[in-house]
Design brief:
By secondary structure, the protein is α/β, with parallel strands linked by helices. It is built from 19 helices and 13 strands. Residues 456-473 have low confidence and may be disordered.
Length: 473
C-alpha cells in the first residue's frame, strides 16, 4: 500500500508542501510546519497488524527496517526511497527498570529510557536519520544544496555531523563559544563538520543559522524543521512497544528548544488515532530554572509566553530562552494535561549524582528530569504506584567535566551531597587498610532518612521557588 506524508501549517490555514521542498515556515502566515500523514490510509491496516509488523522488524537485519526509526517507516517518512536512507540503526535503546532508585524514592515502577545509548550518544539521532535521508533523497532528485547546517549546544551538532559524514554531505555546525563540553565539541570536529564557534549563546547561533539557510542554499537541520520531529516521535512508539504495548502513567522529559516534547506527544497521538493505544500518559516537561520560559508560561496556564535570556546552567543543552517549537510544545502540553517543572543547579546536580549511586550514569539534562520527578513524587502529584518513564536524553560519558567538578565539590551553587573522591593514602598496607575500614564504617552508617529527604525533595511550592530563583539569579 502506498502511504503519504506532507508538510502542513500548524496554524490551521491549510497550506501544504511536499516533504522534498526546502521550506520551514508557512509562506502564507509564517506559522511552523508539521509533517502530516494520511491517517485514514494508515487505519486500513489493523492495530494488531501494525504491532505484529513492528515486532517482527524490531532490531533485525533487513535493511532499513532493523532501525527502530525506519522500522516504523510508514508512520515516519514513507517519501524516502530505501536506497537514500542514511541510518546507523538508531533507536532500540534500552528501557531500564530503575529498581533500586525507585525503591529509594518510593516508586516501584520507575523506568529510565536510555536514549543516549545511540550512535552519537543522544536522542537526536532519531530525528537526524530522517532529515539527512530526506536531504540525500532531494539531492538524488537533482536539488543542489551546499550543505546542512545547525545551531547547537552539543548533541544536535554531533548527530548531524555523524549522519552527514555517513552520507557524504557537508555538515555546518554553529556553536556558542565555551558553552559546549569538550566531549561534545570533538564529535563534529572528528566527523569532518565545518565547525564555527561564535561568541554568543544558543539563541544567537540560531538567528545566524536561520539567516545562512535563507540566503546561501544551505539546508536547516534544527528542530523547527519538522522532519526531525518525525524521527524523534518514534521514541513514543518504541517506548510503548517495549512495555508490551501498554502506556505508562507518566513520561518525564527535559525541554530546551522543545522539539522533543512535540515529538513525544505526536507519537502517542498517532498511536491512539490508529487504535494501538487507548489512553495517553501525563507528560512532564522539566526545565532548568536558569532557562525556564515554558515553566513561566505554565504558571499562567499558558495564557502568556515571553522569551527569557537564558543564564548559564550545568544543563547546557537546554540553555535556551527562546525555543522555536514553543507553539507546538504548548499544544502538546495542553492535550496531555501536562505539567512543567523546573530544577535549580543544586537540584539537578544532586538528582543526577543520586541516580548514579544506583548504577546509572546520567547527563545533567536527565538530572533535570529526575529532579522534577522527585518533586512531583514528594508532593503526591505522582503516586507511588504509578508507572513512570524518565527520558534520559544523552549519554553521561559526554559530560565528564560535570561529573569531575561535582565530585570535587567545585560546582557553584551546588552542595554535593553525594560527593565521592579518591582517598589519597601512602604506599603502606596498614594505612591503606585503615583508610578502607574507616570509610566502610562511615558508609555503612549512611545519612539519616531526614537528610536524604531534605536533599532530594525540597519542600517549596512551585510559585515560591520561582520567586526565590529569580532573586538568586
Amino acid at each position: 500500500m502506498h502511504y503519504r506524508a506532507w508538510f502542513e501549517c500548524i496554524s490551521g490555514c491549510g497550506v501544504r508542501y511536499e516533504l522534498n521542498e526546502i521550506v520551514y515556515q508557512c509562506a502564507r502566515c509564517g506559522g511552523l510546519l508539521e509533517v502530516r500523514h494520511d491517517v485514514e490510509r494508515l487505519k486500513a491496516r489493523s492495530a494488531e497488524s501494525w504491532m505484529k509488523l513492528f515486532d517482527e522488524r524490531y532490531m533485525r537485519t533487513t535493511w532499513p527496517y532493523g532501525s527502530a526509526v525506519w522500522g516504523k517507516k510508514e508512520m515516519v517518512c514513507p517519501n524516502v526511497e530505501n536506497e537514500n536512507i542514511v541510518s546507523m540503526y538508531e533507536g532500540g535503546t534500552n528501557l531500564h527498570w530503575a529498581q533500586r532508585l525507585g525503591q529509594e524514592v518510593g516508586c516501584e515502577e520507575l523506568w529510565i529510557k536510555h536514549c543516549g545509548n545511540s550512535h552519537s550518544g543522544s536522542f537526536k539521532d532519531l530525528g537526524m536519520t530522517v532529515l539527512v535521508s530526506m536531504v540525500k533523497q532531494m539531492m538524488a532528485e537533482g536539488k543542489e544544496l551546499r550543505g546542512v547546517a545547525c545551531a547547537s549546544t552539543g548533541d544536535t551538532s554531533a548527530s548531524l555531523a555523524a549522519y552527514c559524514a555517513a552520507a557524504g554531505i557537508q555538515a555546518i555546525v554553529i556553536l556558542p563559544r565555551n558553552k559546549v563540553s569538550l566531549s561534545q565539541l570533538i564529535q563534529p570536529i572528528a566527523n569532518g563538520a565545518l565547525t564555527v564557534s561564535v561568541d554568543t549563546d544558543f539563541d544567537g547561533c540560531m538567528r545566524i543559522v536561520r539567516q545562512l539557510c535563507e540566503k546561501e542554499n544551505v539546508y536547516l537541520a534544527n528542530s523547527m524543521n519538522s522532519l526531525r520531529i518525525e524521527g524523534q516521535k518514534t521514541l513514543s512508539i518504541e517506548l510503548v512497544q517495549q512495555l508490551d504495548w501498554e502506556v505508562p502513567d507518566w513520561v518525564v522529559i527535559p525541554g530546551g528548544n522543545l522539539g522533543n516534547v512535540s515529538a513525544l506527544g505526536n507519537g502517542f497521538l498517532l498511536l491512539r488515532a490508529l487504535g494501538i493505544i487507548a489512553k495517553l500518559p501525563r507528560v512532564v516537561c522539566a526545565q532548568s530554572a536558569r532557562a525556564n520560559p515554558l515553566y513561566l508560561s505554565y504558571l499562567t496556564g499558558f495564557r502568556d509566553f515571553h522569551p527569557v535570556r537564558a543564564k548559564k546552567t550545568i544543563a547546557s543543552a537546554i540553555q535556551i530562552g527562546d525555543p522555536v517549537s514553543i507553539a507546538k510544545a504548548i499544544r502538546i502540553m495542553k492535550a496531555f494535561d501536562g505539567i512543567v517543572e523546573q530544577a535549580t543547579e543544586d537540584e539537578l546536580a544532586n538528582a543526577s549524582a543520586r541516580a548514579d549511586r544506583t548504577g546509572l550514569f546520567t547527563c545533567p539534562h536527565t538530572g533535570v528530569a529526575l529532579a522534577a520527578f522527585f518533586k512531583l513524587l514528594s508532593r503526591g502529584t505522582i503516586d507511588k504506584d504509578d508507572r513512570v518513564v524518565i527520558i534520559s536524553t544523552a549519554n553521561g560519558l559526554k559530560f565528564p567535566e560535570f561529573k569531575v567538578r561535582y565530585h570535587a565539590d567545585k560546582l557553584r551553587g551546588v552542595a554535593a551531597h553525594y560527593r565521592n573522591e579518591p582517598i589519597p593514602v601512602p604506599h603502606d598496607y596498614q594505612k591503606v587498610r585503615s583508610a578502607i575500614l574507616r570509610e566502610l564504617d562511615r558508609r555503612q552508617r549512611g545519612p539519616s532518612d531526614a537528610e536524604l529527604h531534605a536533599e532530594t525533595f525540597p519542600e517549596s511550592e512551585p510559585h515560591e521557588q520561582t520567586e526565590a530563583t529569580r532573586e538568586a539569579d
